[in-house]
Amino acid sequence: xxxxxxxxxxxxxxxxxxxxxxxxxxxxxxxxxxxxxxxxxxxxxxxxxxxxxxxxxxxxxxxxxxxxxxxxxxxxxxxxxxxxxxxxxxxxxxxxxxxxxxxxxxxxxxxxxxxxxxxxxxxxxxxxxxxxxxxxxxxxxxxxxxxxxxxxxxxxxxxxxxxxxxxxxxxxxxxxxxxxxxxxxxxxxxxxxxxxxxxxxxxxxxxxxxxxxxxxxxxxxxxxxxxxxxxxxxxxxxxxxxxxxxxxxxxxxxxxxxxxxxxxxxxxxxxxxxxxxxxxxxxxxxxxxxxxxxxxxxxxxxxxxxxxxxxxxxxxxxxxxxx
Length: 323
Ligand code: FES
Ligand SMILES: [Fe+2]
Hints:
This protein is an alpha+beta fold and 323 residues long. It has helices spanning 162-167, 172-177, 267-286, 300-309, 316-322, and strands spanning 20-26, 35-40, 43-49, 55-59, 74-76, 79-81, 88-89, 95-97, 112-113, 115-118, 121-126, 152-158, 187-191, 198-204, 211-219, 222-228, 234-245, 248-257. It is built from five helices and 18 strands. A seven-stranded antiparallel sheet has the order 12-18-17-16-15-14-13. A four-stranded antiparallel sheet has the order 2-3-4-9, with no helix packed on it. Strands 5-6-7-8 form a four-stranded antiparallel sheet, with no helix packed on it. It binds FE2/S2 (inorganic) cluster and fe (ii) ion. Fe (ii) ion binds at residues 168, 174, 178-179, 276, 280.
């Protein structure tokens, strides 16, 4: 039988960006009065911290003549000043001063993206229509618990769409072929009643160091992986993503462990994560996104993932409603 479908180009089926919480910086990277540029969701943004300490994330380009406010913009009290002609914008995006003109045009505004600071990171609530958050950032009490270590960080630029990276966690077979793991413990994927949170549980009781793993996936690219080797021997890898464009994603990991095992689980765990990504890298860098993959009967968790992930995108019906 011949294949009659059109040959896929590298990019034509790559999805848009899912809605959800995504990190855009670590808190310590943005001091009071500092400004930085953020490239995310195929857009340019400016991120600054006001003199009172509040992070503000906005579109980058000045409505006046288009200068990038994230490059040499200046924080003045609770506002950001454009480096080109000095117009100032407040945290609501409203122009509050034009230094050489008394009258501020009505339309002198810049788009603000909802952002919050939690667990040592600055997060954007991303929705293609820039809505308010539809769910809250999760609490991770272990970050403030004195029985747990301070976080260690790792970052990695991945040449893939955020959805394809997230999909790997529901792909048990690739652990064998890509990561060369001989025994992949069976994992169970379940979806919470509200339909939004996906859980992955596996019990590696036959591993060299037996352990249980529980991953909570809040949205594509935002997950918490809790591994337990026994009472008091636990670690958490908190994973956040910054989709840069449709083919590139910056991943950020924060690792915390119970102090009891602080000496055993640290840098080498982070190195393990980075090495694991190195295995995935050539696949990610060269694959296309299959909009309609050809699944076989045993690809159950992948099928479940694809059903789950749909809710994070606007359907064409949603877009018509709001058009
Ligand atoms: S371009 Fe920003 S003030 Fe002119
Ligand atoms: Fe992988």
